Known about the structure:
The complex is a heterodimer of chains A (456) and B (280).
Chain A: H1 3-18, H2 21-40, H3 47-64, H4 74-103, H5 111-115, E1 121-125, H6 129-143, E2 146-152, E3 155-162, H7 169-190, E4 192-199, E5 203-209, E6 215-231, E7 237-248, E8 251-259, E9 264-266, E10 269-278, E11 284-290, E12 296-301, E13 307-308, E14 315-322, E15 326-327, E16 330-331, E17 335-341, E18 347-353, E19 367-374, E20 378-386, H8 390-409, E21 413-422, E22 425-434, H9 438-452
Antiparallel strand pairs in A: 1-22, 2-3, 3-21, 4-5, 4-20, 5-6, 6-7, 7-8, 9-10, 10-20, 11-12, 11-19, 13-14, 14-17, 15-16, 17-18, 21-22
Helix pairs in contact in A: 2-4, 4-7, 7-8
Chain B: H1 3-26, H2 30-60, H3 71-93, H4 99-115, H5 134-167, H6 182-214, H7 223-245, H8 250-267
Amino acid sequence: MNKKTGSADFSGRLWKLFTSVRLTVVVLLSLAVSSIIGTIIPQNKRPDEYLNEYGEFLYKILSAFDIFDMYHSWWFQFLLLTLMVNVIICSTHRFSALWKMLSVKSPSFNVSKFRNLSNKEEFTDSRSPEELRSIYMPIVSRNFGYRRIEEIDNGLCIFAEKGRWTRVGVYVIHFSVVLLLIGGLIGSIFGFKGFVNIPEGETIKSIRLYNTGKAQKLNFKIRCDNFNIKFYDSGAPSEYRSTLTILEQGKSVLTRNIIVNHPLRYKGINIFQASYGELPPEEITLNFKNRATGISHKKKVSLGQQFDLPEDMGQFVIKGHRDSYNFRGHDLGKTFMGILTTNDGSHVHVIMPVRFPVFDRMRKGDMIISVEDYDHRYYTGLQVTRDPGILVVYSGFVIMIIGCFITFFMSHQRLCVEISKSGKKSSIMVAGTANKNKLGMQSRIKKIVKSLRINQ
Amino acid sequence: MNSSNLLSIVTFTYGLAAFLYIVSWIFKKEMPGRIATWIAIIAVLGNTGGIALRWIESYRLGIGHAPLSNMYESLVFFAWTIGVIYLVVEQTYKNRIIGAFATPLAFMAIAYASLSPNICDRIQPLIPALKSNWLIAHVVTCFIGYAAFAIAFAVSLIYLFNQWKTVDKKSKTGLFSHLPDSRMLDELTYQMVTLGFLFLTVGIITGAVWANSAWGSYWSWDPKETWSLITWFVYATLLHARMMRGWEGKKIAYLSIIGFLAVMFTYFGVNLLPGLHSYG
């Protein structure tokens, strides 16, 4: 055997493989089974979290197979690619045969095939075939777009069909699958997905990408004018709203409120309300109460700024704050931490939960220090994406729904009404085929027979 | 009467219908079956009323939204879709034995909603992520799909019992001697799977479009999304095996059962996994 036939043999077998539905079934089931992994093992976390969870040995094995980002791994992409090639080759291979069938002007009918059908109905009528023909034709035309009459030995045959084109349905679905895969590919090559936090009043011009962590410059600037949360009476959040302004060359071109489910789209960039957070307050109002005299003093200070206590009781600085503070198993909520330097030079830690102003009493110091108020400043967390493949994907969606409908709920139906002379009477045979929903066709034949016999 | 009370009554009505369908099947009596049909119709009407009432109640509370926003509401709607599709199938195929397998599913769905301590039946305001016109389209299409798959599952079970019966010839007089003819069951499984597949497809697509308007990406491999795709793959396999390789009967019945298990995991199991879809 020479080399040439060897390679022809190989490509022939490869072609055969890709035209087989067996491959489709194997790939679909492989995709289904392997997709389960990624729903059980959380995806795209930090390496140290995985190391903790699985230990070093298992971690190395799993990460060698890209299990921690499996939907973007080479082997998962390979499965998707195989599916796409399989769909394209299978469809084009079969579609050429279908095309021949679709482009035929007058379809061929074979009476004997219809005679052999098990769902045929037979009856007799006292009128002649010619008479019946003129009665039957309008009834058949009501249900079937294409009709033809053929003379046979001792009578005639009415052939009719409809929905031949619905045979393309499955190719429409396959085409939409290819569109979805292409659209997804375009999005992942030319698009990006990132996030940015913008403090109220500030402006940004670049965002951080999720997958690489790198900065992505935008062609315009975004300013967050305001962030606002609304609550239901129950305390559950009802709305997160950011007022954003788009700036180009220093000029504001657009101001818009965005809420969850109502993003801002500008020049191909989509901006979504994703999260929010509280910024460190700039101005904190502290209350100092002399334990002995009960006299209170208020003072506005800022974070990290050391200042003298009233009544010459030492110095104080607010070191930081936390959103929650655990005290003997209770969460005290937002809490500030400070350090008090007494006049003899010793340092004392002071805990100031906002909700519990008397907390500091437990320290038994001369001054009871508490946070009276602080300015609430928020930042808005925006998800920023660009996806030039979205139109392709959406058209894939629409085409897929149309294709499913055609494939599952429409069929190519063929009908044969044979009217043959038997003595003075006519004997009639009605039979039909459908490429789908054969039981439905059976009842349709019964209905047609009923309407044919109505004036008997 | 409020919607929760009404739906509790509906739960027992479904239970009674299921019981009568089973009695009619086991004792081969026509009468309990006929009564069962009427009771199933009453249950579905009551179910409809319960959903409508709950919708009205949410407006009275000033937080008006379609009752499709949490586990309780989705289970109630699931029972309704199973009930409606089953009754249509019963009318079309003039067969009540499917009812002995299908109505228990509707009963279990709504009973789980009403009786499970883990499921809250209070009307809650919508969280910001659910405030979207896509909510109704997405949930309704998904659950029509799920219900069609549930019926396919019930029919597949009957099919397999039927097969088991034919193998064991002695039991000709037993439970399954008057089960509907296998060809019809096979065809019905396929019909229900195609109906479910169309609606699952539309459900996934509306979900994707919604996700794109809420989070900025139409697909993010969230466990619920992924599991709905797994379900889609299983049923796509079934359809290809049947249309192209001519699989029928047992093999299709097994695939339809596997598919429904995937549906159930998409619906319930995913809540055990971490992800975005935490509202059921």
